[in-house]
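Need tokens for this chain, all 469 residues.
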Amino acid sequence: MKKTTLSIAIGLLLVANTGVAKPRTMTLEQRLEMLENRLEAAENRATQAENKVQQLQVQQAAEIKEIKDAQGNTPVNGQQPASEIANNASKPTLTLSGYGDIKFYGDVEFNMDAESKHGVLAATNGNFKPDNSNEQWNLNGRILLGFDGTRQLGDGYYAGFSAQPLGDMEGVVNIDDAVFFFGRQDDWKVKVGRFEAYDMFPLNQDTFVEHSGNTANDLYDDGSGYIYMMKEGRGRSDAGGNFLMSKQLDNWYFELNTLFEDGTSLYSENDGQHSYHGRAMEQQKNVIYMRPVIAYSQDEITVSAAMESNVVDKAYGYTDSNGKFIDQSDRTGYGLTFTWNGQKTDPENGVVVNLNTAYLDANNEKDFTAAVNALWRNFELGYVYAHNTIDDYAGLIKHDDDDWIYNEGTYDIHTIHASYLIPNVMNMKNFNIYLGAYYSMINSDNGNADGYTENDDRYGARIRFKYYF
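Here are the structure tokens for all 469 residues:
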């Protein structure tokens, strides 16, 4: 009985142990199996994610190529589906045409000036010289906004435009440049619109040089000293436009600028009339200035030669007492410039030197100008000499044509100008201050008994604030 009971007890214990052990062993296997399943699922998800990333990269590359090749409007902040555009109608969007690169820029230029007033200088009688020779102070300037667009093709051909509206302190909005151009890189180019052609009389760091004739438009102050600078046919006219063709051939540069304009706009306007040599101008036709330029550059040296001439006969003039029209539109000028630019090889300590000369053969007038200027680091110094000969001034001057240097109607102008640059104001690379000054001496004493012997000096100083953005 005891053995039977003991045997039964041992059997039950073994059965119990086996039953307990079996469930524990199966739970472990299940857990391992679950871990394996989770690991496999994670690997599958990683593979799927990698495939999606690759698909997105391919899709993004395709979209970028599509945007670059697009010919329609492309929003700057990304492409939006049509359904979203209707929902986001209140959100502003800047769009580009897709035809090329667009650049927006500008510069601020404001001046504080102190200068002397000046009167008539060319006449040989003191009655022409007013008494308003006192000093004056002035605050002037403008803000320029520039918009340039260029489309460049792979074979070197390109086309583009430039528009530069100006807003000045008097509340007037004008245009500096408005030009369309096309051509081939480092080869040929065509420009049409409002702009300035090649500069044949560079003044280096030109901050403040005030005299008659320093640009082509409306600054020929009749009867005042005219400093001819080969700019009458250069362009940026208020009464016409330019058509320019240029060619680059190795070190040689060729340019032909054609200026169409109302020729009387060259002269200053008084009481609604443009006057020249004391007579009101009558316009009959527009002038056409032809201005060819040839320049050779190698290393630091550039040599340029040019001429400009009005090719339209009897474009403007005056009617004499006999009712005959007198042509005064015949004007031909010549210029030669030599430039040494040491900053090409030494930007910090290089010296920039310009030697300029120009000669104008005009109706009843001949003008010769020569200048030298140099820029080192931030300091510029220059000198301009001008000799004017007026054969006839409202019938009051009758110059001896055999004496170009002396006699009635001749005078000399000596101008010294200087400029200093204060760069990076407040550590801003785009904010500079310029200090400029000039002193101009006009001498009409030629030793003749009826000559005008009084000198008239002009002078001025300027502080210019220049900010680029």
